[in-house]
Amino acid sequence: MEFLKNVLTLFNALILRSLHAVDTGKVLEISPDVDPEPTPNRTSILMKGIYETIAKHLIYSYVDYTSGSVFFQIHALSPWTEIVCTAELQSKGVQKLLRLPSGERFDAIITDTSLNECFYGFISKFGSPPVIGISSHGILPWTSTFMGTPENPSYMPHYLLPYSDRMNFIQRLYNFIVVNYVNFIYDYDVILTQEDIARKYFKEEVQPYWNLERNFSLFLANIVLGFDYSRPLSTNVIPVGGMHIKTTIEPLPKDLKHILDEAKDGFIFFSLGTNLQFEQLPKDKATTLLEAFASLPQRILLKGAPQEVAGITVPPNVILRDWFPQNGVLGMKITATIFAIAFKPKFIHS
Ligand SMILES: *[C@@H]1O[C@H](CO)[C@@H](O)[C@H](O)[C@H]1NC(C)=O
Ligand SMILES: *[C@@H]1O[C@H](CO)[C@@H](O)[C@H](O)[C@H]1NC(C)=O
Q1: What is the rounded CA–CA span in Å between residue 271 and residue 308?
Q2: Which residue stretches, if any, does this entry annotate as coiled coil (predicted)?
Q3: In the predicted structure, residue 7 carries a pLDDT above the cut 50
Q4: How much of the chain, in percent, has pLDDT values that exceed 90?
Q5: Which of the residues 32, 41, 78, 287 could staple to 189 if both were Cys, CB 3.0 to 4.6 A apart?
Q6: CA 6 vs CA 39, 97, 108, 272: distances in Å
Q7: CA distance 38 to 43
Q8: Does the beta carbon of 131 lie inside 6 Å of ligand 2?
């Protein structure tokens, strides 16, 4: 992407930093995560405390949400996006970006397309440059619709359904209903609500979202062919899963290296991802997991805040920390198993 000299990126900074544009051009990025390796050509705006704000404003706990029915989960999309996106727009970082003059021009805008759509106001604000979509969630059904890539419910199971690509007639029928229902809710609720929010925060005229989305130039899909069921992709959808994984592995901190070198039976890396934290699990679920870990011969690297699981006994083979150098840990030859949800590229290490 050497031809892109001046790029605005919204979210997914980690994945986007691995794009070649980041090495050769000027990048303005906004992200909820601190830039760990600042470089001269990259200006990083931080949406500070956004995870905490989101956690505070959630209408359902993640546990209640995932134990609800498929239709409950689909109906939660719009209110959830409304709360999260509004909180993000009100953050100091986004306010700073909003104050940039509208005459500012970028060669391209790279933006997340999964439930942050109120940010599409920036596309209109900065004069509708070519837009590249990216999502950490693979290819969601509505993305297929606006990118024009095939979404065939007869062999592509919806992400909320426990089906494989081999479905019987009833499963195919149900999958067809769910895929079309989620697209209906997305097109007539999520996207229109997001457009209303954008109109409130962006004084410039915001293009109608249906036109704007169908005008995306490219979509970088966080999928790895071979890990997902096979599916046809139109040429504007490019699989880039694993793009962010560094090929040079930094040495592990001494204490962690010692723990892992001593792990004769290997180790298991257990992380619930960015949004759901181990300490947020109900006490009975956390205890059940820890009891299961205690019975294993491996050491378990468990991502969670040690100070917040007071009252629960952590078995001696469990190393509980709120942060691990994941690239280094997963690059170790003796990794036994990796358990990480929501973020497929982590599996690629194994
Ligand atoms: C910054 O951008 C300029 C112009 O595109 C380029 O020549 C230079 O190598 C870049 N510097 C870094 C550190 O990436
Ligand atoms: C579609 O994108 C092109 C640039 O890629 C831009 O010139 C045009 O204004 C965009 N149209 C809409 C409706 O956003």
Answers
A1: 16
A2: none
A3: yes
A4: 29
A5: 78
A6: 14, 15, 7, 35
A7: 8
A8: no
Say yes or no to pLDDT of 333 above 70.
no
What's the rounded Cα separation, in Å, for the pair 21 and 83?
Answer: 32
Provide the token pair at 303: 């991502």
Ligand nearest to the CA of 42: 1
**Nearest alpha carbon, ligand 2 atom 10:** 128
Range list of H helices, the chain: 13-17, 21-24, 50-57, 62-67, 70-90, 92-98, 121-125, 141-147, 169-185, 191-201, 209-214, 254-261, 283-294, 326-330, 345-348
Q: Which of 17-26, 36-45, 156-165, 308-317 has the lowest mean pLDDT?
A: 17-26
Name the pTM for this structure: 0.82
* SS3 of residue 335 by DSSP: strand
pLDDT range class, residue 252, cuts 50, 70, 90: confident
- Per-residue pLDDT for 309 more than 80? no
What number of other Cβ atoms are within 10 A of residue 154's Cβ?
12
Kindly report the protein residue whose alpha carbon is nearest to atom 5 of ligand 1: 25
What SS3 state is found at 16?
helix
Q: Which residue has the higher pLDDT, 87 or 190?
A: 190
User: What does the alpha-carbon distance between residue 61 and residue 79 come to, in Å, rounded to a whole number?
Assistant: 14
- Please work out, in degrees rounded to the nearest 5, the angle formed at the alpha carbon of residue 172 by the alpha carbons of 169 and 175: 150
Q: How far apart (Å, rounded) are the C-alpha atoms in residues 220 and 243?
A: 10
6 alpha carbon – ligand 1 mean position (Å): 11
Concatenating the DSSP letter of every residue in 32-66 gives SS--SS--TTEEEEE-TTHHHHHHHH-SS-HHHHH
For CA atoms 128, 131, 136, 139, give the dihedral sign.
positive
> Whose CA is closest to atom 7 on ligand 1?
24
Residue-wise pLDDT tens digits, 206-224: 999 999 999 999 999 888 8
**For residue 218, what are the CA distances in angstroms to 111, 148, 223, 304, 327?**
11, 11, 15, 36, 28
